[in-house]
Amino acid sequence: MTNLRLKKEMIDAVNNQIKANEPPCTKRIFMQLQEQGCTKNEAKEMIAAVLLGEMYEILKEGRPFDEKKYERELQELVEDDFIFDDVMQELEDASDTILQANINVYEAIFERKPTEAIRIFMDVWDDIKKFVKDNFYKQDSKGNIIKPELIDIDDETDFKYELFNWLQDMEMEFHNSRLYEERIQFCQEVMDLFAWKEDSADNYKSAIGEALNDLKRYNECDEWFENWLKEEPDNISCINTYIQCVSGREDWEKAKQLTEKYIGTSIEFNGENEILLYRALDVYEGLGETEKAKQYQEKIDEYLKWFKKNRKFDEDDYAEPVYFSQPIVKEKKTYPNDPCPCGSGKKYKKCCGK
C-alpha cells in the first residue's frame, strides 16, 4: 500500500536530517529517545510521525516549515508515549474505507443504480481527496505544492477499479442521474486536485460544457468552450463537444458556423480527428445539405479504409459507422492503464496512447 511507501519516505527524511544535523533538534531528540530505552528504529519512527504531521499542516495551510514548532513537538516525544503505528493506522483505515467504496460503487453501477453509486462515492470523496493530498502531494525547495498526475496514481495504489477510470465513470454517473450542477462541481474539483501534463483534463472540461448545456445555460456553455478554444484552438475534444452541444439544442445555423470555422471542408483524417468528420456529417445532415454531407461521408469511407489497413482488429470492429443523427451506442473506451488494443501487451498509455 501507499502508506508503506509514505512511511519509508518519512524515515528517509529523518535519516537525512540526522546525518546533516539539520535541524539540530532532530538528532538531539533521536539520541534522547534512545537514552529512554527506544531502539534506533523506534526513535526514527516516532520522529517521522511528527514530521508527517508537520508536512500535512504545511500543505493544508500553505505555510513554510516552522522549525521552532517542529522542535517543540519533537520535545514532547521524550515526555509522552507516542506510537508511530497509531498515526499510520489512521491512514490505513481511511484507505480501507476508500477501497471498499471502490468495490461498492461498481456493484451499484453494474446493477444500473447510478443514484446509489453516487451516494456511496460522495461519502468517501472527501477521503479520496485527503488521501491523494496526504500521500502524493509534494513540496519543492521554494515551498510550492507539486501535484501528482491522475494517470500516475494507479501505479502506486491497490484499487480494484483504477482511480483514473473510477473518477471518469463517476463523472458519467452524475450525467446519467441528471445531476448537472453536481457534475460541474465534481469536474472542477478533479481538475484542481491533480496536475495535467502527460494526461489531459479534456474529459472533465468537456463534461462541464455539456452540463452547462444540459442546464440550458447556453451563453455560459458557449463562453466556456470559446475560452477553451482561445487557449487550445485545435483541441479536438473541445471542438467536437462544442458543436455537439449546439447541435443538440438544434441551433443548426450556429452549428454550421462552428463547423466551417473549426473543421472546414478541407480537413483530412489523421487517425486522431476522425470524430470531427462524423460531427460535420451530423451537422450537414441536420441542415439537409446533402452535397456537403456527401463530402464528409466520402472522407469517412476513406478513413475506414485506412483504419482497416493500419489497425489489426477483429472484423466485427469494422461495422458500418453510426452517424450522430441516429441513436448512439457508447463504445468501450480504452483507458491509459488498459491493455493496448494493438495487441502489443503493453499498457495503452505506454504504447498507442502516447
From TrEMBL:
Q: Which InterPro entries match?
A: SEC_C_motif, TPR-like_helical_dom_sf
Superkingdom, according to UniProt? Bacteria
Q: Matching Pfam families, A to Z?
A: SEC-C
**Annotated protein name in UniProt:** SEC-C motif-containing protein
